[in-house]
Specification:
The complex is a heterodimer of chains A (about 200) and B (about 900).
Chain A (H helix, E strand, L loop, with lengths): L8 H7 L14 E10 L5 H10 L12 E9 L5 E9 L9 H5 L4 E7 L3 H17 L5 E7 L11 H10 L3 E4 L8 H11 L7
Parallel strand pairs in A: 1-3, 1-4, 4-5, 5-6
Antiparallel strand pairs in A: 2-3
Chain B lengths: L1 H6 L20 H33 L5 H16 L11 H9 L2 H23 L3 H13 L6 H31 L2 H9 L1 H6 L5 H17 L13 H22 L10 H12 L7 H5 L1 H6 L1 H9 L1 H15 L4 H12 L1 H4 L4 H11 L4 H6 L2 H13 L11 H17 L9 H11 L2 H15 L9 H17 L1 H10 L3 H10 L8 H14 L3 H18 L5 H13 L4 H11 L5 H31 L3 H10 L1 H13 L5 H21 L3 H5 L3 H147 L7 H6 L1 H41 L1
Helix pairs in contact in B: 2-16, 5-8, 5-12, 6-7, 6-11, 7-12, 8-10, 11-17, 17-28, 19-22, 21-22, 22-23, 22-24, 23-24, 25-26, 25-27, 25-32, 28-29, 28-31, 29-30, 29-31, 32-37, 33-34, 35-37, 37-39
Classes of the chains: A alpha/beta (about 200), B mainly alpha (about 900).
The complex binds guanosine-5'-triphosphate and magnesium ion.
Guanosine-5'-triphosphate binds next to helix 2 of chain A.
């Protein structure tokens, strides 16, 4: 929150310890993380979440109105667990005015585009800028090019995604909710990049 | 075999409820449980509604004539026998009959009636005043009214087109009128969507219908309008207040601007005349077309004041809260929303015609214009609207597409917003396409004005209002959610935006919609959300983290199958949540939303032309003209919408006040013109409001952070104490265990000591016995010794005697020998030899006795000390 300066002395001592805001976990072994998915409508945000949480792909997914919530816990090799509290938001432009409600205080933001749509890539860049300006300062950002299975219809070269992500200090991956390619990897990588709460 | 079939992949299809909507697998069980309850409730409410309709129809037949009664009885027969009859049937009778037969075939008949009813109402129209029609015309145009030139152009366009259309329509109607049964077919055929949702329709009739439908499609492209059954006219009449209110506002807004426009309702008027030729039922007109009656102010007022009207309205309200019967729902909803009153003949067709006309221009639109953007979004969403629903086949989807595009054209301030696809889809399942269009218009333009616009201002305001209400009603719950870091709006935002579609089970959605559409505002939205919180709050306060709370609330809401409980809780427990109260709260919260929205839209522009607000403000101060121009162009290119307009208005009124109070300070004075001052002040004001808001937010954040920390702090302290106590307890327990060990050891020692003591005692007793025995022995020996001594003494006496005798003998002998020999020399030597044995014997006897005298005492002492020594060593 970055508000320690004006806090009474007693409490400001506490600030150094935990990071309970930001959705950060409580102890070093079991992290709890608020994650928000952003991106143009139809890029497959809901499909990615459903694939990750339920292991299914429904080609006839429903339009997301407002936002919807799902959570999933994964175990890492170092025997820590990470519980993702995922907010899947609505993609239509006008719903962007509600987005701050969801990305505020999120520890992770996953910005998704559709590799077959240049427009969705542009939209993704808009989101990245917005998050850099208004998200938490230590937010972990990931850029995801979805629908990688449709490579014949590719409009966004993978190199563009990589470069943009690198320039903005983001993690980048191309996924397919349809084939499940890289879906688990996406979340595992995010989990590894999370700032761990100090052990004391 | 069946089992095998189910294992096939394509049969993984989700289970569907009686409306054809997919059920989540985890809800299948609960749904089955509630299905029978729903059925039971349905039966009950069907009876109630039938009675109500019969009664109100009777009482509303103020002009009751024999003709009508005759008609009713006629209706009964024809209803059953002539399936395709377009006879002018009416009244609740058809309803009651249908109830008893319960099938789609009969439902189709009713739709046939709808059209025929159109003819009746047309009679009515023939005696309507033109002034009323003028109002309706104005209403039509009003959606696109004021400010932008583009919109007013559109308005005129519509006017012109309808004008032309009117002529065409009139011709067509005359023709159809002569043919008699054709109009019936039209609505019948187009009803197919509604019909399909009720899957138990007979195949024969539906295929027959399909044919008619196709025929009709050829004849007239999109005639998809159907009148609601006449028996519901009473309901329509009761509902007219809502509709009229909305209308009045629109009329006011457009007042004067479009006087020259030809009244669109005239087209109906003409149609009416032509239909007039076919049948004359002068009396039925009043009863059948109440919506037209509504427009007659005087008449309406008269009716409104009657106590009967109120009692009917009250009764209707109760009925609605109990649920609208399934097969009436589509039409009752139309009556609630005032579809008939809203409808402007051929308006819908014209919107669609524009769409197909612009077919060539589409490419252009798609790349730039807003319409292209909406069209694209609609296309993305069509297949994601109730996917797999049996009614949303190819035709169903086409209807949905047409409906949404027509709406986007109709109201560009909203255009298309995700969520509307679900509303349109739902309406299409319940009514013909054009009816669904007007219902959607009513819902989005009226009930949810400002909700789905580009900035979604009202939906954000409503969330703030809801949070305040929730805080007021359930402070504990809100505190808990605050503590967990859950914002209520995360969850309730989607509830409100989707009007609960996909958020709670369908039966409950429909029941909520029943009440919401009846009430004509968003009060039911709040009441339902509060009811859900009421129902699930107790479970929510037990959750431990934000994720669990959200998951729980979402899934509990999703399993609210008890629709009656939900609706009754909403309507009874939260009766106090009224529109007036909501309006009050909205007024309070709106400014903060507007500030953020304004800031955001500014940022949006900045993002586009990468020019900072600061620099703009700066340049404005030096060169005010440029920004004003910019503002103007922004207004011109459609950035502003209805919501924004009201916001501008409220801002400018604020600013006016501000200007007055400022009494024009020097800086302002130096600015060239008043409008620029307003613009500048607006910008300043916004900035200040934004600053204030962010300060407030910051303060709040700090406060919550502080609270959280205090809580955490307490927790830490407590847990530290607990830990310490636990440690102490552990230590104590250890000590206790040690003590116990020691105790057992001591016990063992004690036992051993006791045993030893016993042994010692025994030994002592034995020793004492020994001693006694020895004493006895000593005593015996003493006696023996005494005897021996006595015999020794006697022997000594005898020895003495013997000696003296010997001496005497010797002396005699010596005397004799002296006499015989010299005396002395020889006699002393034997005497010296004799004494030693005597003294030696004596000495021995005395010495032994001496020694034995001290011995017994010594012996006893020694033993005793020995025993003591031994027991002592054992004790140690
Ligand atoms: N081929 C392919 N199609 C996908 C993939 N992911 C999603 N889709 C399709 O894209 C469509 C949209 O997916 P959604 O997940 O609903 O999109 P969304 O981003 O949630 O959209 P909004 O809810 O409108 O914001 C779906 O109909 C899927 O069939 C993918 O990885 N490959
Ligand atoms: Mg989605």
């Amino acid at each position: 929150m970055g508000c320690s300066a004006s806090l009474p002395e007693r409490s400001s001592n506490q600030l150094g310890r935990g990071n309970s805001e930001n959705g950060g976990g409580q102890d070093a072994k079991n992290l709890r993380v608020k994650l928000v998915l952003l991106g143009d409508s139809g890029v497959g945000k809901s499909c990615i979440v459903l694939r990750f949480v339920r292991g299914q792909f429904d080609p006839t997914s429903k339009v997301t109105v407002g936002a919807s919530f799902l959570s999933q816990t994964i175990a890492l090799q170092d025997s820590t667990t990470v519980k993702f509290e995922i907010w899947d938001t609505a993609g239509q432009e006008r719903y962007a005015s509600l987005a701050p409600l969801y990305y505020r205080g999120a520890a992770v933001a996953v910005v998704v585009y559709d590799i077959t749509s240049l427009e969705s890539f542009n939209k993704a860049q808009y989101w990245v800028k917005e998050l850099q300006k208004h998200g938490s300062s230590d937010i972990v950002l990931a850029l995801v090019g979805n629908k990688a299975d449709l490579h014949e219809q590719r409009e966004v070269p993978i190199q563009d995604g990589i470069e943009y992500a690198e320039k903005n200090g983001m993690f980048f991956i191309e996924t397919s909710a349809k084939t499940a390619d890289n879906i688990n990897e996406l979340f595992e990588e995010i989990a590894k990049r999370l700032p761990r709460p100090s052990t004391n | 075999m069946a089992g095998f079939c189910f294992s096939l992949p394509h049969n993984v299809e989700p289970m569907r409820d009686s409306y054809g909507f997919a059920l989540r697998p985890q809800h299948a069980q609960s749904y089955r449980q509630y299905a029978s309850i729903y059925k039971e409730e349905e039966g009950e409410r069907a009876d109630k509604w039938r009675r109500f309709l019969e009664q109100t129809v009777k009482s509303s037949q103020s002009c009751s004539s024999e003709g009508k009664l005759e008609e009713i009885s006629k209706a009964k027969d024809s209803d059953i026998k002539e399936e395709t009859s377009s006879g002018s049937l009416s009244e609740g009778n058809d309803f009651s009959i249908r109830k008893s037969c319960e099938g789609t075939e009969i439902e189709e008949e009713t739709s046939a009636e709808r059209v025929s009813e159109g003819r009746d109402l047309s009679l009515e129209k023939s005696c309507e005043g033109t002034k009323v029609e003028g109002e309706t015309g104005a209403e039509l145009v009003s959606e696109g009214n004021d400010l932008s030139g583009r919109k007013s152009f559109k308005g005129t366009e519509i006017g012109e087109q309808t004008n032309l259309e009117r002529q065409r329509e009139a011709d067509a109607e005359t023709k159809e009128g002569k043919e008699g049964t054709v109009p019936a077919r039209v609505s019948e055929g187009n009803d197919s969507i509604g019909k399909k949702s009720v899957s138990d329709g007979s195949t024969a009739s539906s295929s027959e219908k399909e044919v008619h439908y196709l025929e009709e499609r050829k004849a007239r492209k999109v005639q998809t309008w159907g009148e609601i059954r006449p028996s519901l006219a009473a309901v329509e009449k009761l509902m007219r207040n809502h509709v009229k209110k909305a209308k009045k506002i629109e009329v006011e807004q457009t007042n004067g601007k479009y006087d020259n426009l030809p009244s669109i309702e005239e087209s109906e008027h003409l149609e009416v005349v032509s239909e007039d030729i076919v049948g004359e039922k002068v009396c039925t007109k009043e009863m059948l077309d109440n919506s037209i009656n509504d427009a007659r102010e005087g008449n309406a007022l008269e009716d409104n004041d009657s106590p009967e009207f109120h009692s009917h309205l009250k009764e209707l309200e109760t009925l609605v809260q109990g649920g609208v019967p399934k097969d009436l729902r589509g039409e009752v909803w139309q009556a609630f929303v005032g579809v008939k009153t809203r409808r402007v003949e051929s308006y819908y067709e014209d919107l669609l015609a524009q769409e197909s006309d612009s077919g060539e221009r589409k490419e252009q639109d798609d790349s730039s214009g807003a319409l292209g953007k909406w069209r694209k979004q609609i296309e993305k969403d069509i297949s994601r609207t109730f996917p797999g629903h049996p009614a949303l086949d190819e035709n169903g989807r086409n209807s949905l597409r047409r409906l949404l595009i027509a709406y986007a054209r109709h109201n560009p301030s909203v255009g298309y917003c995700q969520a509307m696809n679900f509303f349109a889809g739902l309406l299409l399942l319940l009514m013909p396409e054009e009816n669904a269009f007007w219902a959607l218009v009513g819902i989005i333009d009226d009930y949810f004005e400002g909700y789905y616009t580009e900035q979604m201002v009202e939906s954000q305001v409503d969330q703030l209002v809801f949070e305040e209400l929730l805080r007021e009603r359930f402070p504990k719950l809100v505190n808990h959610l605050d503590y967990l870091g859950v914002q209520v709006a995360w969850i309730t935002g989607p509830w409100f935006l989707s009007i609960f579609v996909n958020m709670i089970p369908w039966e409950s959605v429909l029941r909520v919609w029943d009440v919401l559409l009846f009430e004509g505002n968003r009060v039911m939205l709040f009441r339902t959300a509060l009811a859900l919180m009421d129902l699930y709050g107790p479970a929510l306060v037990t959750t431990k983290d934000a994720g669990d709370a959200t998951t729980l609330l979402q899934s509990l809401a999703g399993s609210t199958f008890d629709s009656s409980q939900l609706v009754f809780t909403a309507c009874v427990s939260f009766l106090a949540v009224s529109e007036a109260r909501l309006e009050e709260l909205r007024e309070k919260h709106r400014p903060s939303v507007l500030v953020v929205v304004e800031e955001r839209s500014k940022k949006g522009r900045i993002w586009k032309d990468s020019k900072g607000l600061a620099s703009k403000l700066h340049s404005f101060k030096h060169d005010p003209g440029s920004l004003v121009e910019e503002m103007k162009t922004n207004e011109g290119d459609g950035m502003e919408n209805a919501g924004d307009k009201s916001q501008l208005k409220s801002h400018s009124s604020n600013l006016d006040e501000l200007l007055h109070s400022l009494n024009v300070d020097s800086e302002v004075d130096s600015l060239p013109d008043l409008q620029e001052q307003v613009v500048w002040l607006k910008v300043e004001l916004c900035r200040m409001l934004e600053e204030k808001r962010s300060t407030i937010i910051r303060a709040e954040e700090l406060e919550t952070a502080l609270m959280e920390m205090v809580k955490q702090d307490n927790r830490r302290e407590l847990s530290a104490r607990v830990e310490q106590l636990e440690r102490e307890v552990a230590e104590l327990q250890e000590a206790l265990a040690d003590k116990k060990l020691q105790e057992t050891a001591m016990l063992q020692v004690l036992i051993r000591v006791e045993q030893e003591q016993k042994v010692t005692e025994d030994a002592r007793r034995r020793a004492e016995q020994d001693l006694a025995a020895q004493k006895y022995v000593v005593h015996m020996l003493q006696e023996k010794y005494d005897k021996a001594m006595a015999s020794i003494n006697e022997m000594e006496k005898r020895v003495l005697m013997a000696e003296s005798m010997l001496e005497a003998t010797l002396q005699y002998e010596s005397g004799q020998s002296k006499a015989l020999s010299p005396r002395g020399d020889r006699i002393p030597s034997p005497r010296v030899e004799i004494p030693p044995p005597k003294s030696r014997l004596l000495n021995f006897g005395l010495g032994w006795r001496e020694r034995n005298k001290g011995k017994p005492n010594n012996e006893e002492e020694r033993r005793e000390s020995q025993c003591n020594e031994r027991s002592e060593s054992r004790t140690l």
